[in-house]
Amino acid sequence: MTEANRRLTTAASPAWAFMARKHGGTRADWTDWVTYGYLLLGTAVMLVPVLWVVISSFKSEGNLTQFPPTLWPEAIESLEVKGYNRPLPLFKVTREDGSVVTLAQVRRVGIEAQMVVPEHPEAGLVVVPVERTQAIRKFYIATENYTKLLDSAGGQIWSSIYNSVFIALVATLITLVMNSMAAFALSKYRFAGSNFALLAILATLMVPPTVVLVPIYLIVSELGLVNNLWGVILPVISTPTGVFLLRQYMLTIPDELLEAARMDHASEWRIFWRVVLPLSTPALAVVGIFSIMSRWNEFLLPLIVLNKPEVYTLQIALAGYTDENGIVYGMLLAMTTLTALPLALVFIFLQRYITTGIASTGIK
Amino acid sequence: MNAASRLNDKLVRFLWSVASLPARGMEPVMAGLQRALGVGRLPWVFLLPNLTIIAMFSALPVLINILYSITGSDNLYPGDRHFVGLSNYETLLSCESYLDPSTCSRDLFWRAVRNTLVFVPIQVTVMVAFALGTALALNRKIRARGFFRGIFFFPVMLSPVVVAMTWVWLLQRDGALNGMIGAIGFDRVSWLTDSARAFKWSIFVTVWAHMGFYMIILLAGLQSIPADIYEAAKMDRATPWRVFRRITLPLLKPVLLVVFILAVIRSVQTFDEIYILTGGGPGSATKLIVHYIYETGFAVMPRNYGLAAAASLLLGLVLFIFTAIQMRLSKGGRND
Amino acid sequence: MGSLTIKNLNKSFGKVEVIRNANLEIEDGEFVVFVGPSGCGKSTLLRLIAGLEEVTSGDIHIDGQSVVRTAAADRGVAMVFQSYALYPHMSVRENLTFGLENIRMKKDEIDRRVDHVAKLLQIDPLLERKPRQLSGGQRQRVAIGRAITRDPKIFLFDEPLSNLDAELRVRMRLEISKLHDHLGNTMIYVTHDQIEAMTMADRIVVLRAGVIEQVGAPLDLYNRPCNKFVAGFIGSPRMNFIQSRIVSLTNTEFGLESGGLGTLTLQREGRDLQVGQEVSFGVRPEHLELVEETLGSWSLTVDVIEQHGSNTYLHCGLPGQHQSGELLLHLPGQSAQRQGDSLFLRPIQEHWHIFDMNEQRVQPEGNLT
Q1: Distance between CA atoms of A259 and A271, rounded to whole angstroms?
Q2: Nearest CA among C207, C214, C209, C206 for reference residue C17
Q3: What sign does the dihedral C336-C337-C339-C340 (CA atoms) show?
Q4: Which end of chain C is more exposed for a tag (fewer CB within 10 A), N or C?
Q5: Residue C297: which domain range?
Q6: Is C246:C263 a contact under the CB 8 Å cutoff?
Q7: Chains A, B: CB contacts under 8 A, how many?
Q8: Rounded to a whole number, what is the distance in Å from the CA of C110 to chain A's nearest CA?
């Protein structure tokens, strides 16, 4: 097997040689082929659905209702024809004698299409069975999906965007400050009850919001925060994993630095703000990114707390998206793409932070 | 220091000076507190915001939930409710035969429980298996590992709404999947309107969305196994399967266990994706326990907060057990 | 000005006593070194003076005022930490100004102090750099500079040279000594290296297991160690200790039998001894002289010879079953002995010590030697 492999890999094109060369030698092992096969298949499975949504979001309504769906966004060629006030779609029609001619369709009635000759519309309608017509298609990107979405409904999507951004940013800011304060107290001080406090914070992991939905709604409404963005921000603003991560990181800051700062007449708050926090930026970055991620993607809590369209977050708006005329798929897909876009960008630029952050929570 | 990092530095300094303004304002307050309370008690001031939120939004709700679960009526305010003892629990748990939800007084609850009991083991097993497989693949010396890792992790970043929308679009009657199988000559299939198929797709979609997260953890675990152990195994002429079974798996066991528990805890709470993908349907074929709680407390009229609370507490108990196991496991392997 | 008094100081961490009943007086302007083996409490004592640890009982006075209840920052001391404790995210200049800004000093006064210190320690070209861009020696100077800007009464150094390589250490020793001459402040310096102690100190405080064993000028400790521990700790290479017994006694002389080495007759010099007393005889390697083979000397065989170029060290085995270890002999220059040679040695007059079974030195009259 190896002889054949060697001949295959070296005699064949450089691409094969490239692929085969990595496994610590010049021979390609069957496990490597399996590995690459799996990875490529997995890539397809992971990427294709998302790419499909993005591509579909650029299809015009007509294109979207087609079955089977076309691969690329297309539209039917159309032409301005004298005597008709809108452009008519063009079709290739096969006549009984086998010749193919281009006609413009006026309307379709059942299995018959009423066509005119584009150059001579005055010649009258030609009726052709639908099965002998084939639309002439061209590549067409329906940016109107996006433009209509962003203009429509009195700027409602903009208010959803604003709400989501507000929640994500404000919640993250407050979470970072609160969590780092708690982590500072728990990592740099030895005091009676520190273990209790740490356990109390970690214990909240056992009380996921899904389990206390109704009481949280009660409390939020007692605070007068129903239909208020703060009603979504406050309940989950203290994240135990965030405190934990920050605490682990702060433990590595040498205590001598704090002692030197104390001898430098710095108050404890000053030490926190000017010595410990600046030195914790890697951990802060991880906690911040995770916070933005989870706040942007949040669904159940906002669903319960925000009941008026003007306070909907983007996720809620997306889930309940209908136009006055029912679901308009083009805009729905455009909205889906837009909702996913910010975090996709965050991911592309900040992948390193995210993966190291997750790896360290697992190893905790 | 190149230009990019100098710019980065300036940016960080700027952000910091902006963020410092409120901090500087806080300083006299905090310094005063420090004088008043002494350095020994100051940590509690730092902990105060966190503990307040926890008390208000974690501890208090549990107590209120308990209160709800032992009271009746469709009133939201505990003060307006009347004490009913354990009858909510009795209602939930009373079944002639536990194997047949239709004999239960709250058949919807039991259907949800049964769905969850079927969903979780399958979903977690499939997901962790794929996560492990992918981590193993990525752990090898392959090119573009970072790229592949990003691809497999990427769906984790998508919100549950986006995930569900994506798959609804693919799976609907006129969707791309039917288009593809149509191209090879098969008939269109209703993927989401058939109970069994909808259930399988629920599993698939949630695995698709979350597998990357656990893959990252497992990959980190695999990478912590020193490379020379594998080299020794190679010198010992071990086949790949044997290496996996006798070396990789045992050394990975602690991480694998943690991953399993985390996955179970999350899986039991699945709601968002399936709610949008199938709405719990067809019928109640894909309605899981959290959906039942949501419905009972927020959708059904009249609202039955008592039942919702009782169901949540039971769910919370199960989760508590699993979380306790997880903490016990991770403490065992950690030196603090 | 900068005087320090420690009275009956005790420090325990839980049940573990780390400092036992310490008493010490340091005068303004002195350079005092705390020295001792690892775990002896020297760093803890320093930190108690600094205020970074709280005393369990006892008092500390700086310039006659008790400071045990004063915060560390307000005691008028400045500390140079072992790992320098420079703020990594701040530039050198910011490291120097941080403490002064905290007490709201006027900007021009701050600048004046920073410039003065920068010139003094030759770190002015480094002011805008971050600590990670500096070498070990440079970081050390910044740490010292930070202490100087605070204009303290007392400087506290916690093993400042232990993170530097040998050559740099020698240079920095000199620089710190010169700095002391220049500034004139009281300086308390902690180290485990007795060479640093000997070369830098006005007075040395030797600690062992939380107890101050002896305090004195370096040569005092070298010549008149009060117990076996100090005798063995100070002076490198270590003093030789030989188990011996007093076999005869007159008013002026006594006979010392040292197992297989035989008996020597030595000057009593008023020491309080008894016949039959078991003692430990201490003599430094450089205080043994080669003699012709006559009675009244020790006979030894050379085991290993170390030629250092300017000195020779001869390791000689001690004969006899119950004598383990060796005798180390120091000879100036490059001596011609070879392995296996027989040597005859005698301790040099007035340069040996007798330690009783409590490890205390038996003092000669007048404590002259």
Answers
A1: 10
A2: C209
A3: positive
A4: N
A5: 241-367
A6: no
A7: 299
A8: 14
Residue C209 has pLDDT above 90, yes or no: yes
C10, C79: one domain: yes
Which of A252, A263, A276, A280 is the best substitution to test chain C (most C C-beta atoms within 10 A)? Answer: A263
Q: How many CB atoms lie within 10 A of CB B19?
A: 14
The four Cα atoms B158, B320, A185, C45 give a dihedral, to 10 degrees, of -130
CATH code of the domain covering residue C303 = 2.40.50.140
Please give, rounded to a whole number of angstroms, the shortest distance from the CA of C23 to a CA of chain A. 25
CA distance A291 to A173: 9
Q: What is the rounded CA–CA span in Å between residue A363 and residue B220?
A: 8
Strand order in the sheet with C57-62: C16-26, C4-13, C57-62, C65-66
Chain C contact partners (≥3 CB pairs within 8 A): A
Q: What angle do CA A38, A44, A49 make, to 5 degrees?
A: 145
Residue of A nearest to B155 (CA): A46
Instruction: Tell me, yes or no, whether C208 and C248 share the same domain.
Output: no
Based on the domain organization, do C211 and C74 belong to the same domain?
yes
Which of C86, C89, C102 has its CB closest to that of A266?
A: C102
**Closest-CA residue to C156 (of C204, C105, C191, C206):** C191
Distance from C-alpha of A179 to C-alpha of B165, rounded to nearest angstrom: 34
pLDDT tens-digit profile of B41-94? 888 989 999 999 989 998 899 888 888 888 877 777 877 778 888 888 888 887
Q: State the first-to-last Cα distance of chain C, in angstroms, to the nearest integer.
A: 35
Lookup: tokens for C71: 């915060």
In this complex, do A266 and C50 lie within 8 Å of one another by their Cβ atoms? no
Amino acid in the structure at residue A315: Q
Of C178, C206, C233, which one is at a domain's C-terminal end? C233
Using CA coordinates, name the residue in chain C closest to A277. C89
Around Cβ C324, how many Cβ atoms within 10 Å?
A: 9
SS3 content of chain C, % helix, strand, coil (to 5): 30, 35, 35
Chain A residue at shortest CA distance from B23 = A273
Q: Which CATH class is domain B107-332?
A: mainly alpha
Q: What are B146-175's pLDDT values in tens digits?
A: 888 888 998 998 999 999 989 988 888 778
Cβ-defined contact of A265 to C102 (cutoff 8 Å): yes
A47-83 pLDDT, tens digit per residue, is 999 988 888 888 887 777 777 777 878 777 778 877 7
- Pick from A7, A44, A32, A94: nearest CA to B142: A32
Could you tell me the residue ranges of all domains in chain B?
Answer: 107-332
Q: What is the pTM (predicted TM-score) of this model?
A: 0.78
Cα dihedral B59, B64, B66, B68, rounded to 10, equals: -160
Query: What is residue B3's predicted lDDT score, i.e. its pLDDT?
Result: 66
A230 contact partners, CB below 8 Å, separation of at least 6: none
Are A344 and B157 in contact, with CB atoms under 8 Å apart?
A: yes
- Apex CA A357: angle with CA A353 and CA A361, to 5°? 175
Please count the structural domains in chain C: 2
The answer to whether residue A352 neighbours chain C at the CB level (below 8 Å) is: no
d(CA C322, CA C302): 19
The alpha-carbon gap from C77 to the nearest alpha carbon of chain A, in Å, equals 8
**Are residues B166 and A50, on separate chains, in Cβ contact within 8 Å?**
yes
Q: Of the residues C233, C257, C273, which one is the last residue of a structural domain?
A: C233
Q: Which tokens sit at B283?
A: 């019928």
| Tokens 């942007």 sit on residue | A296
User: C70: nearest CA in chain A?
Assistant: A263
The chain A residue lying nearest C146, using CA atoms, is A264
Stretch 17-36 of chain B: residues touching chain A, C-beta under 8 Å: 20, 23, 26-27, 30-31, 34
Residue type (1 letter), C220: D
